[in-house]
Structure formats: C-alpha cells, structure tokens
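Reopening this one. Same input as before:
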Amino acid sequence: MKRELTLKIAGQEVLLLADKALYWPQRKVMFIADAHFGKAAAYRALGQQVPRGTTRDNLLRLDALLAHYPTRRLIFLGDLLHAPKSHAPDTLAALHEWRRSHATLLCTLIRGNHDRRAGDPPSTLEFGIVNEPWPLGPFALRHTPVVQVGHHVIAGHLHPVFQLCGKGRQSLRLPCFESTDDITVLPSFGDFTGGKTIEACPGKRFFVTDGSYLWPVMSGKSRAG
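Same output, byte for byte:
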C-alpha cells in the first residue's frame, strides 16, 4: 500500500493520490472531483441533523495536498457546490478564506450537474468556469465520464466505490479510481457525498483508497456489489 501510485494514461504519467485526487506532475496540475462543498449546509437548511465543519475539513485536506505537490492549476471536475442552499454564509466564508491563502493558484471549474442547479460560485472566488468537455493537452476534462474521441477523458460524477469480497459484515466498500483505455474516473473528494458501487469487468483497472493509502485491486479477486 502506498500514498500515491503512478498511472500512465494518454502517454502521460499521472499520480493517483490516496486522498482522492489526481496529480499531473509534468504540468503541475491537481484534479479533484465532486467536492460538493456546502452539502451539509444544504441539508441543515432542510431541517436535517448533519455534521458541521465538513467544508472546512475538506479544505484542510486540499491544503495538505497543495502543500505536498507543487501545483500551478487546480481543476475541479464538477459539482463544486452541492445545491442553491450551499451558498450559505459560513460555506462561502470558508471558501473565500481558503482562496485568499491561495491567491496565485489558477482554479478552474468544469460545470457538473450540481453546479448547474446550485449556480456558479461567486466571481470573487476568481475561478475560471467552463463547460464540458474542456481540452488540456492529451486529456478531455469532463464531469460526466463520456468517451471523447482523440482524448483520454478525466472525469468524476459517479462517486465510484469498490466492494471488497467478504462475508456479511466483513464486506467492505471503499472509494476507488476507475480507469480504462479511454476514461479515468476519480472518487468523490468530499467526505459527505456517498458512493456508487461500480461493476468489475474486463478492461477496467481499480485503485482503492482508505484515505491514507491506496492499492490496485484485481477485479477477479473482488466483487462489485
């Protein structure tokens, strides 16, 4: 088990990171998907009892990644904010505080389905905001993982998790990266987002993470739920 694993896609070496991000060393670009900042705030606005501080906790995780991996551009692969009620004052204050501490960092958001519903983040955050697909070198950056002819797609949206074989309570579902010749899907970066168990099939590679370490799994030795 390691904190990072090298994956070669579209002729480029990228790093899969245990804290559910992907790093492209050649361009010093960090990718994260499905942060869903403000999800807990949106649930609280509906009267649900959910934990506080999830946005700040996720931003602290992001700070740690940026401190360890020299990054010129940070790309959010969709679903930055969860819902219209995610524009809550506490959530936006945390995002603005984070942005001030990374003022020179180029930030780009590829709009996802939740972004279209929540609305774009405030202009004061100084994010570049684009629609999918957005080309960058040999990659096509998307929120939804759809094949893009001539490019390798890096995407999110699915919140993939892999079910490791076990009996009863010994069965374990963990976030994972899923990669084929055409598409690499990142796990959701947000901690309060849930996940969809993906299906194992030939041609797919899976890299499971517990948040601290990650490791490749052989789909023939594990089972998708």
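So the earlier flakiness isn't reproducible anymore. For the record, The chain has one domain: 4-221.
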